[in-house]
Amino acid sequence: MAASVLLNTGASIPPVGLGTWRAEPGLVGAAVCAAVKVGYRHIDCAPSYGNEKEVGLALEKLFRDGVVKREDLFVTSKLWYSNNAPQYVPEAIQTTLDELQLEYLDLYLIHGPIRLEKGSAPTPENSLPCDIPATWAAMEKLREAGKARAIGVNNFSCRKLEALLAVARMPPAVNQVECHPGWQQARLRELCRSAGVHLSVEHRSQLTAHHGTLPTGICSVVLAYSPLGSTAAAGVNAPSVLGHPVVTSIAGRLQRTTARLALRWGLQMGQSVLPKSTDEARIKENLDIFGWSIPEELMAEFSEIEQACSLHCSFLCIFAHLMFLFVRSCSYCCFSLYLPRPSRVPHHIDLFPWCKSSRLSCSEQSSE
Ligand SMILES: NC(=O)c1ccc[n+]([C@@H]2O[C@H](COP(=O)([O-])OP(=O)(O)OC[C@H]3O[C@@H](n4cnc5c(N)ncnc54)[C@H](OP(=O)(O)O)[C@@H]3O)[C@@H](O)[C@H]2O)c1
């Protein structure tokens, strides 16, 4: 695998990691073994994926068989929403470490700026106020205790990232967000760049090449999840990334598969990528993205791809749409004197088309 990317902790993170979300029990262990055997050195896990125990068994076997040493593998896991409060952080990481059969994680991430009631389903009515600075302080203690060698966040918008950076003693090393040709996170990148919080893979390599060491101040790496667009494909309003005409056309001209093209695009955009597969041939294919590149003029063609709302945005829109329906039904019942009756509600107030067509609105809402 190509050179790793340096984090602001001084540790390095491999540019490609195996995703394990929706990797079915019974298949995920074999996928982890196959991935490590073909050269993956990063496994992205989370307790919410429901398979950390099987991943742990696979890791234990790989270490026991001498396929890889613990210190040569980068393992990421996440703090789930229902543990997003300082008092739950130590127990949550310990559960994950026990499941994965590890002494430490290379990276531990807050799964999102969301808190849910303990043991509850992820629905709006189960959400609680979330004190990110307090949770972050507990995450910093994990780093000090050596349980997590780096700490970071998932699904943080620039606004949330900036708010965290303003109070963090240790700046997050990583912001893991959905990113692929169909959801390029242009605004997030731009804001991160202008705020000086995003140093890309290439930029960071150039920095180390020129300066030898990296600044350890405010910097974080974008770690792209759903790099093949699977989340978008599941969304109500998202086209398939791998089947998009621009992607298929460039892939054809470069004689690469669309999956490899999407992953290579991610690397060239300056992020680490986390493709998920439980299929051995695809696991291998998804690592075959080094030693060639997408020429600049073809990279430019990716900007022609219409940007879809992320699944997060879709959820927000569904929620907003339900709220709208609720308010509208109230107009029938109690407040008919004060609120417009449905017949008077303008037809253009339809949140789904608004969400679909407004790139800015979508990017503002994604990962918030
Ligand atoms: N932090 C977060 O909130 C968050 C959210 C979502 C995901 N993630 C992480 O990111 C990882 C990847 O994201 P993802 O699982 O959404 O999806 P993804 O990697 O974008 O796509 C996975 C899908 O693409 C298929 N696939 C894999 N390689 C392929 C290839 N070469 N050609 C064609 N199809 C291929 C897989 O099927 P097969 O398995 O059958 O090959 C699977 O259906 C997750 O597993 C998880 O670790 C994190």
Automatic annotation (TrEMBL):
For this UniProt record, the keywords arranged alphabetically read as follows: NADP, Oxidoreductase
Keyword Nucleus among record annotations: no
**Name of this chain's protein:** Aldo-keto reductase family 4 member C10-like
InterPro entries given for it?
Answer: AKR, AKR4C, Aldo/ket_reductase_CS, NAD(P)_OxRdtase_dom_sf, NADP_OxRdtase_dom
- Domain of life (superkingdom): Eukaryota
The source organism is Panicum miliaceum
Instruction: Show where the NADP-dependent oxidoreductase domain sits.
Output: 16-199
For this protein, the record's PANTHER family field holds: ALDO/KETO REDUCTASE
Task: Give the protein family.
Answer: Belongs to the aldo/keto reductase family.
What GO terms are given for molecular function? oxidoreductase activity
Query: Pfam families, from UniProt?
Result: Aldo_ket_red (PF00248)
